[in-house]
Amino acid sequence: MGFSPFREKSQSQRRGFRLPSDISREYRPKATVGLLRDFNLLVSSSRGEESDANSELQYLLRELGDKSARTDCTIVSGLTVAKTALEPTRVVNELRTSLRDCPWKFRYVLKVKPVRAVVACNISEIVAAAAGQVSRIREDETFRVSVEKRRNAIPSKEIIDAVASKVPRKVELQNPGKIVMIEIIGDLAGVSIIEPGGILGVEKEKRLTSSQPPTGQNAR
Prior knowledge:
Alpha-Beta Plaits; alpha+beta; 2 domains; five-stranded antiparallel sheet; five-stranded mixed sheet
């Protein structure tokens, strides 16, 4: 049996926990035709909590000003996609600020990655999508190619070598100025050139925030 984007009960319902009423009424995700081939955010959640993560993300995007953002499940458990009218890297940055200010709003979304192009998962189209974003890497900057595969056996090394050969910048594996991020989901690939800190990792951010020393009146 294939992966179904719709579940009779979400993980939170099985636990007896409910999302706030304003989220549950207004932001429950609906089926979206073609969204899997036209998304600009890739979202991770715990397995079985995809629907709750989608609802939460729509709520968060509405707070950022996008009242018409769409979400959908993928063929991979714990992985969903979203389409927002906002610029995706701006979304990641503003969600990071929201997370630091109001960490309790993030219960189901675990990671958010910006996606600038979605193409068929073949080397020529992936290379073309990456080459179309090369201007995001300054001539004096270095870069690294990062590939994450799901439900596809295409060799990562072939993708990395092909993409790197078309980017006229110096490769730096340890401390690159930019990352060519390639996210493969079945027969599709999301391609983005991002800053090294261009992915929102919710748990990591929460740990960093909690480890920071107090400031202002609470400082000792």
